[in-house]
Amino acid sequence: RMATTLQRISPDAVIVIGDDHHEMFPEDHMPAVNVYWGEKYLNSPAELEKIPPFRRAGMWAYHPQEPEWYPCDAELGLQVIRSLIAQQFDIAHSRSVLSERGIGHAFNFIVRRFMSATQAIPLVPIFLNTYFPPTQPTVQRCYALGKALRQAVESWHADKTVAIVASGGLSHFVVDEAMDRALLAAMAQKDQTAICRWPERIFQSGTSEIKTWIVLAGAMEQTALQMRLIDYVTCYRSLAGTGVGAGFAEWV
Q: Scanning 52, 100, 173, 241, which has its CA 20 to 30 A from the CA of 233?
């Protein structure tokens, strides 16, 4: 459904907000927010021998069997950086990827599942450090970043259309259905207070990925677009409640 919407809208560029799991950034360098503005990046086949057997069957959704280059919109990336800096956000940037590193699954999944990998829409990957202290942006800061990101796009002088995608799970690795549904409802209502009332201790480990959604909610607040929930699936893995709350929504 979301892939169909993206194909129908056919934007000139897609900003993807995702988090990093030490794929692009090592432990000794983890920026709070990083904007990639290279011309392209490489998605290489997965090294299956390094992946636990139970995860190997799903690697097709993240990695190709042969190396693939994905285009990026460097001009839009630079516009985002300059605008965010002007709006008092201290942004890190990168233009290339080290050969031993890779842009992570939060971004590759969007290309491979939402787009045709052979006709990928140019990307601007924005890395939000949700997982790793001490440089995790707060919930309030993430919402403010979304507002600033919308301003960055609206002030761009290019005659292009831009879509924004948030890539990440809802609650995990323990599913919290009540919180997930409350946050989704607050986003649909564009209720900043209800979105930002949750304490920072909630947004740790996998559940921290909700912050990518919060950035998007901030970007959508002052637009005419309304959120439409497509599905919310509680993917339980054990009787103890481990798993992931998987949400799918679009602003149209």
A: 52
